Amino acid sequence: MDLIPHDELKPAQNFNFAPMIDFLFLMLSLFATLSISRTALYDSDIQLAQLKKGPLDHEIQSEQTSQIHLTITETGSYQWVTEFQKHSMESVEAVQKELSYEYEIGAISHDKEKTKILLHIDKAAPWDPIAKLIFGIRELGFSVHPVYESEDHCR
Hints:
Blueprint: H1 6-9, H2 18-42, E1 49-50, H3 58-63, E2 66-72, E3 78-81, E4 86-89, H4 92-105, E5 115-121, H5 127-139, E6 143-148, H6 151-154
Parallel strand pairs: 1-6, 2-5, 5-6
Antiparallel strand pairs: 2-3, 3-4
Helix pairs in contact: 4-5
């Protein structure tokens, strides 16, 4: 008869995974919370507006005093669209700078809620430039409205 049982003298040959699983669960919940809170802060007010060919839609025009049209091409580049031509913008910062300048000189309404920025997005455009532009415009306090054209109007 031994004073110490034989099973207790044997070294343990298994590994306790419980602390590792607890740590991974905590990390997963942390990143899930961060992604949900970022989405709730920035992506809650995106609404699509359908663009009609021909004269400007009277409903859209009566709601605000200023409209700005921006285009995101299939390569992810930005263009400022006026009645007469398109101006290429090299980055989100350039768009922000132009918006700030237009706001300062009074070319757009000083009530930012009355200024709508319409984004014309190409179907093949990558998501990264789209998201950066939306976040950049929202940083300045303007509302962003992605615009789509139905397949019938494109032909």
